[in-house]
Amino acid sequence: QLALDNYWPVMGVEYQTELVDFNALFGRDAPVVLEIGFGMGASLVTMAAQHPEQNFLGIEVHLPGVGACLAAAQEAGISNLRVMCHEAIEVLMNMIPDGSLSMVQLFFPDPWHKARHNKRRIVQVPFVQLVQSKLKVGGVFHMATDWEPYAQHMLEVMTSVTEYRNLSNNN
């Protein structure tokens, strides 16, 4: 709560139904990396610290994770990170300009193990088409999972959308 109270005014981004101006948001023109579902934010903060030439926007619905990320970012002294606490699909649809992102990262999304819940998986054709519309030409959608059936599902979805090309050597 301390991090939310103290660092949200600096690094937090409120949801709105208007497109965000990334140059104004970050105070500079730099490639923007969007991470969806950053958890507690450890890897996001590390990436932002290691790549000061890029801007990072993280979206997470779990408020304690947002607070942990804010605290870690403050402790690391990074200025190229902003965070949101909102549903990612709404943010993509309403706030992210088309063709504005250099990369979208989706690491270890909920696999919804039961077959009857598979429709809840975020990686579905409409979602990956939405992500594609937000990427710059040559942009990257980087996904990772540690559950093989979900990895297979991700590959099936991604290969069905012709605008993507698999960059992995391990198809």
Mean pLDDT: 94
Give the overall silhouette. globular
Helix content: 25-40%
Largest sheet data: 5 strands, parallel
Structural class: alpha/beta
Question: What is the beta-strand fraction?
Answer: 15-25%
Query: How many individual helices?
Result: 7
Radius of gyration (Å): 16 Å
Which strand order does the major sheet show? Answer: 3-2-1-4-5
| Sequence of secondary-structure elements | HHEHEHEHEHEH
In short:
By secondary structure, the protein is an alpha/beta fold. 39% of the residues lie in helices and 18% in strands.
Textual characterization of the structure:
The chain is an alpha/beta fold and about 170 residues long. The chain contains seven helices and five strands, in the order ααβαβαβαβαβα. The termini are far apart. The model has no long low-confidence stretch (mean pLDDT about 95).
Helix and strand arrangement:
Blueprint (H helix, E strand, L loop, with lengths): L1 H10 L10 H5 L5 E5 L5 H9 L4 E5 L3 H14 L4 E4 L3 H7 L6 E7 L17 H10 E10 L3 H12 L12
Parallel strand pairs: 1-2, 1-4, 2-3, 4-5
List its salient traits.
single chain; 171 residues; alpha/beta; 5-stranded parallel sheet; 7 helices; 5 strands; 39% helix
